[in-house]
Amino acid sequence: MPRTVAVRLLLLGPPGSGKGTQGPRLADHCGVPHLSSGELLRAQVKAGTELGRRVASALGRGDLVPDELIVALMDEALTGPGSPEGYVLDGFPRTRAQARAAEDLLARTGGLDAAVHLELPDDVVRRRLAGRAAQEDRSDDDAAVVEHRLRIYHAETEPLLDYYRRRGVLVAVDATPPPDEVTASVVAAVDRRVREREVRQPGAGR
Ligand code: AMP
Fold this sequence. Notes:
The protein is of the alpha/beta class. The protein contains 9 helices and 5 strands. Strands 2-3-1-4-5 form a 5-stranded parallel beta sheet, sandwiched between helices. The structure holds adenosine monophosphate. Adenosine monophosphate binds next to helix 2 and helix 3.
């Protein structure tokens, strides 16, 4: 579908809900970059930067890194030199404090079109991540760490669903089917949102 405006989305969902698979596909479909906070952090760790050294142990334990660090990193990615007009944000914001900071940040970049919730029950999360731990070198997919990440998701991130629902931008998609089916649902839901926006504010953000 031809775009007259840059699309700005964020992905929400528990670990293993497919954000890392659906994010790049959705970004490709919309012609915008995929910005994953987890990937940005893992890249810092790999490169051995000062920030990477500060966050490495939190990542390994499955703990969240401090809000001010991630907000600064995402601020740079979203509004720094060469920053994109549209984006698919994945993994940020993850706490209420981050959502408040993001509101400011995202308003400066034109406001969100949709927050896409990839819905997945905990038992499916556990099964999927057990498979990923065996295949990929992600120590944060070990069983005990997965339980910890799930607890953090429910306590810190799940409240954001309500936050975005109240702002009228939440879109929920069932993430249990195979990846291609989920992609088709996400793309259909997002295209619908963007068409609605174009009817409401033709040419906005051009
Ligand atoms: P992800 O790839 O999104 O699952 O993120 C992997 C890890 O990076 C998380 O378990 C956290 O340790 C850290 N992380 C990613 N995004 C954030 C965020 N928005 N706030 C705090 N920590 C984050």
